[in-house]
Design brief:
The chain contains 18 helices and 23 strands. It is α+β, with helices and mostly antiparallel strands. It comes from Mycobacterium kyorinense. GO terms for molecular function: DNA binding.
């Protein structure tokens, strides 16, 4: 880099100065014989670039060879020189031409920005996929060609981000990261890094080297089509709410109507913000940073300096008791992750009454039917996701001792019962427990039976060394101290206890007596 720094940084980091070609490659691209090349080099012909010698072989940079073709073999330029290679050594900033929407069947919409470089060549376009677009690294190579077929002849090449990124490392400056693009051209030119049929892969700074501007970039989740189509040079950075087709928080917001209570609407707004912040991550945009050459055109509307909000138990219960139709419920539940309603509801255990243990049967005996109008509560739709369409509900049940329960008895004679990460209606401490294959129960100090709360991960398994028996041992240890405690965050695990040894070696059903548990350290 020269002392001017900013003047040459564009070309210094481009692939053309970093790529070395042998005499054989140079001959193939220039159309010269190798003997001619060696002759030019030996007599230091002023028209021919001087190579460097390494290991007894000469090497030219791509910059040297392509510049020679443009200046001295112009008839070959249209079939050799890529459009991203500047036709003049130091182009000035390109001019933005227009933005237009173009679609590819079965993939989606793109915002296509056309630029006119200052080097005298034809235009170059950058096609940004929108947030509904299904382009990904495996099909990206086909996209620029499909788009180029729909664009006017004035556009010579199309670049499409392919979902990858590359980094520039420096001993004196922070590492810079920018997207990779795949490029298709109208002419069958040299392909620097060929991918797919007729496309080549480039780094963002190769594109910037031609355009000599800070090219706008929209982070995934923020690449809203209208915002990208409205962009022009000098447009202020826009604020965009993050969005992904698989996490459309509009379905969460739609649970509440304007006529619903303020408390419910507040809880749903909080849940919506929680999901958005989890989707967004800790930064207002992605990590792409390149100066000069890239500008973040949008930032998230979310305040990423704030912690991700968590619903209180009362707020989660209020949402789960809200009545909603099946379609709206399923749409919302697909967006909400399984921790969304923690600590109230995170999992549905399965109980087979014909083979259940005494604790399970005693608990089942106290369940009562809910009134028909309650069957559409979101909590019941949550439970329904655990059996799907293959089972039909025959009873919708509740535990009269715990108001926040949603239980369904299916026509397959299986009971699906919701559990959260705590059992607030319990009393005192756990005294004894029964562990079955897909459900577990415990008795508290008052003699009442309760389902064993879930940790928020996979439910408990026994009979092997691993996470299932470990989580079960941790949960039991916590409940031996306090039957109402939240078991999502377990204590330090001790694999040497008799409890873990038993759970890891024995298959269900397992009965844990008060006498055995009283000797367990807690």
């Amino acid at each position: 880099m020269d002392s001017g720094g900013i003047v040459s940084v564009w070309s210094d980091r481009a692939c053309w100065t970093q790529t070395a070609w042998t005499a054989e490659q140079t001959a193939r691209l220039t159309g010269l014989k190798q003997d001619t090349i060696y002759h030019y080099v030996s007599r230091k012909d002023p028209k021919f670039p001087q190579p460097r010698t390494e290991g007894g072989r000469i090497h030219f940079t791509a910059e040297q060879v392509l510049r020679f073709i443009l200046e001295h073999r112009p008839r070959r330029s249209h079939t050799v020189v890529p459009r991203l290679f500047p036709r003049i050594p130091e182009p000035t900033p390109a001019q933005f031409v227009r933005a237009e929407q173009v679609s590819v069947a079965d993939v989606g919409r793109f915002a296509v920005h056309s630029w006119q470089p200052s080097d005298g060549g034809r235009q170059v376009a950058i096609a940004y996929p929108d947030r509904e677009n299904t382009v990904h690294i495996n099909n990206a190579a086909a996209m620029p060609g499909a788009l180029l077929d729909q664009l006017p002849a004035r556009i010579e090449a199309v670049a499409v981000p392919n979902g990858e990124a590359a980094s520039l490392y420096s001993s004196t400056e922070p590492t810079q990261t920018a997207p990779l693009v795949v490029v298709a051209e109208r002419n069958p030119v040299y392909r620097h890094d060929p991918v797919g049929h007729g496309a080549a892969r480039y780094r963002w700074w190769d594109l910037a080297n031609l355009l000599r501007v800070d090219i706008p970039w929209w982070s995934p989740l923020l690449n809203e089509l209208d915002a990208m189509l409205a962009w022009r040079p000098g447009t202020p950075i826009t604020h965009v709410t993050p969005y992904a087709p698989t996490a459309d928080t509009g379905y969460i917001a739609a649970l509440a109507a304007p006529t619903d209570s303020a408390a419910l609407r507040t809880a749903i707004d909080k849940l919506t913000t929680r999901i958005l912040m989890q989707l967004n991550g800790p930064r207002p945009h992605d990590d792409n940073y390149l100066t000069p050459g890239l500008t973040q055109a949008a930032i998230s509307t979310l305040n990423t300096s704030q912690p991700v909000p968590e619903l209180t138990a009362d707020e989660a219960a209020q949402i789960l008791h809200h009545r909603v139709d099946k379609r709206a419920a399923n749409q919302a539940l697909r967006v909400a992750n399984h921790w969304a309603f923690m600590p109230v509801l995170t999992y549905a255990i399965r109980i087979q009454p014909r083979s259940a243990g005494s604790m399970a049967l005693r608990w089942i005996a106290r369940l009562t039917d809910v009134t028909p109008d309650r069957r559409t509560e979101l909590g019941f739709w949550f439970i329904a996701n655990y059996y799907g369409d293959r089972v039909q509900p025959v009873r919708w049940l509740r535990d009269p001792y715990n108001p926040n329960t949603w239980i369904i008895h299916g026509d397959n004679d299986t009971i699906y019962a919701g559990v959260g990460t705590h059992m607030p209606a319990a009393t005192g401490k756990l005294t004894d427990a029964e562990i079955d294959d897909e459900a577990a129960f415990f008795r508290d100090s008052a003699g009442q039976i309760w389902p064993l709360p879930d940790t928020g991960y996979h439910y408990y398994r026994t009979g092997y060394d691993g996470a299932g028996p470990q989580r079960l041992a941790e949960t039991l240890t916590l409940l031996l101290r306090d039957a109402t405690i939240d078991v999502h965050k377990p204590p330090h695990f001790n694999p040497g206890t008799k409890l873990y040894q038993l759970l890891s070696r024995q298959e269900p059903p397992i009965t844990l007596t008060a006498e055995f548990l009283s000797s367990h350290p807690h």
